[in-house]
Specification:
Layout lengths: L1 H13 L5 H4 L2 H10 L9 H4 L2 H10 L15 H10 L15 H8 L11 H4 L2 H10 L9 H4 L2 H10 L9 H4 L2 H10 L9 H4 L2 H10 L9 H4 L2 H10 L15 H10 L9 H4 L2 H10 L15 H10 L9 H4 L2 H10 L9 H4 L2 H10 L9 H4 L2 H10 L9 H4 L2 H10 L9 H4 L2 H10 L9 H31 L17 H13 L4 H5 L2 H8 L4 H13 L2
Helix pairs in contact: 1-3, 3-5, 5-6, 6-7, 7-9, 9-11, 11-13, 13-15, 15-17, 17-18, 20-21, 21-23, 23-25, 25-27, 27-29, 29-31, 31-36, 32-33
Length: 543
Amino acid sequence: MERYSRYSLQLNKANQFASEDLKADKDVVLACVKKNGYALEYVSEGLKADKEVVLAAVIQNWNALEYVSEDLKTDKEVVLTAVKEDGRALKFASKDLKADKEVVLAAVIQVGWTLKYVSDGLKADKEVVLTAVKQNWDSLEYVSEDLKADKEVVLTAVKKDGRALKFASKDLKADKEVVLAAVMQNGNGLQYASEGLKADKEVVLTAVVQNVVALQFASVDLKADKEVVLAAVMQNGNGLQYASVDLKADKDVVLAAMKQDGNALRFSSDDIKADKEFMLAAISHNWNVLEYASKDLKADRQVLLVAIMQSWCALQCASEDLKADKEFMLAAVARNGNVLQYASEDLKADKEVILAAVAQDGCALYNASEDLKADKEVVLVAVMQHGCVLEFASDDLKTDKEVALAAVTQDGNALRFASKDIKDCDEVVLVAVAQDGNALRFASENLRKGGLRAYMNGLALARRSLLFFLLAARYRTPLDTLEPSEGPAPPHARTIFVGCVLTKLNAHGIYFAMKLKRLITAFTGAPVGEMLRTLNAASRNLK
């Protein structure tokens, strides 16, 4: 068996290259076709006529019947075995077996459309045909003309799929019962009905409710029937395209269609698309329909502003004149700064327009002219609204400390877009980290690897020293006798000096000393107020 398995694998992989001896070796071939029925194609003619080999092959793969000898294609047991696996095997059966009712029934019960391969006699056999159309409706195409006129057969087919009406006789295409059954299953079946039934309101209503596309096959009169068209567009708004010209201009019909699908407006009349009141109502519900508005309405300020309130993308549909209208664009960018991208080039270079846009959405800076991207006032407004738009500022402003501080205050990650010098500025980086601890990854290598920590520690030490001094000044206590609650800590050198001086000045009154607090704070470099809050926030974010 090991030999057979090895040779079987050889035949499966490259059957056509096997030796003639192997192709004629029954044991090898049996092992092979049991694994791959297609291998029968390459075996010797003698084994293609061997019933045991052939049965093993068609059981594994019904397609193998194509390669059996002509004698075995007439063998009922072999063919029945194949068609029971898959009815399509009937294609390779002998002419006699294609006329054998038992064989044919076994095939069509599997795959109805194999009726195309059977004899003319069995195509006229009602039992065979009913079995076929029950399995597959389009097998009705292959039945005899007499059975295409058989109401029971055709009803069986159209109840499976209304499109089977295509193959029915002329008389049955005019039979209301048959056509109603067809369009109830698939409205598209209406296209195969008689002209008389295409003008039958009951039939057409049934069809369009099942499938709106059926409306295109209705009579001209019924395409102009408001009840029929309303039923169609309520099922699918796009059915409006098949309505009469008059109904495409009917507001009730168009509204019904748009309620189901707003884009159905594209099939309405030009008068509807130019009706300002109608379009305003439509746009207030779905701005996308602006695309279908008349040219005049696309240049109407009121219409565009209503659309922009729905979505700034609506401005893409505006006329070129409106895109260049400063008053209109000012109103538009005040609602949504992003609409700046649709403004004319002249307005993208207009400082008033740009300021209005970036104040509403800092990201609008992306669409400003290069000159205004280098305007400090514009960029400051933008980064205060959205820090990361620093990315779009000019290179000079990316090195500006004031601009950078404004950006990182709004979003610490804006540090990513600052210049190399700014990324090495401890004050800017501290503010960025206070806003978002993750911003540290954008700082210079020096600040990332301890520089910022050292800066923060220095500020903290200056703060402690200042507090130490103020305590001494308040109680007129010599500095060298004070010990903070957390233990003695050496104050900043400058603080020691100033503290000693003010201790002497206490003789003139404590209030005189406290008036010098602000001066002392600046002198020592100790953080207070906003700077202190920034330091504390940064410390928390870096824990």
